[in-house]
Amino acid sequence: MTVRLPLFPLNSVLFPGLVLPLNVFEERYRAMMRELLKTPEEEPRRFAVVAIRDGHEVAPSAPGMPDPTALPDRGPTAGFGADPVKAFHGVGCVADAATIRERADGTFEVLATGTTRVRLLSVDTSGPFLTAELEELPEEPGDEAGALAEGVLRSFRQYQKRLAGARERSLSTAAELPDQPSVVSYLVAAAMMLDTPTKQRLLQSKDTASRLRDELKLLRAETSIIRTLPSLPASDLTRGPTSLN
């Protein structure tokens, strides 16, 4: 099944079920939000998020010192080259905007949630913002996903504990973490301190079990490294329960 949606490139990876706060200031994305606001509130206001490949950057908001009162009008492809498809990773995630709030200066505060993985088929650059033809990707469980999810959760707790230098009782309890394998796989992929290419690889996994196997290897390797680096700074994500909401 294919769908055409507005396209929002980011320097990060969005996973299904994860919350995405956005501060929208570039004109092309402001135009996108104005268009999404035309959708009735009872209908989903959807757009697709794709990660920008290494070496590509979004257009700057203005030359010289930032001036929020003088945002230049830039085209939808600014910063992405003549063929934007080459600037983006091939698999992204649909986002459903629960909140789109316009500020007095014309910028937007947006709160969205990832829903479904999609494959990028083509990009349309003819409008005020990018749109894309996308193929929805089903999430297949794969073999032994349940058992793998249990192992990933155990390893994730050790990873959190090592990263935070915290006592076991300061971490999330079992009841506060999900047990559905696909949800576990996305939560851990988003919560781990990994570079964008690695997170992208996890998003693109052929099924849940494959993603969980990859995460189990990453967690064991990262925990081992952290164990030998006791001075590693703690991450904010370990200071409280990790949640999809």
UniProtKB/TrEMBL annotation:
SUPFAM superfamilies in the record: PUA domain-like
A Pfam family of this chain: LON_substr_bdg
Signal peptide per UniProt: none
InterPro entries hit by this protein: Lon_prtase_N, Lon_prtase_N_sf, PUA-like_sf
Domain spans labelled Lon N-terminal: 5-223
PANTHER family associated with the record: ATP-DEPENDENT PROTEASE LA (LON) DOMAIN PROTEIN
Protein name, entry field: LON peptidase substrate-binding domain-containing protein
Organism (species): Streptomyces shaanxiensis
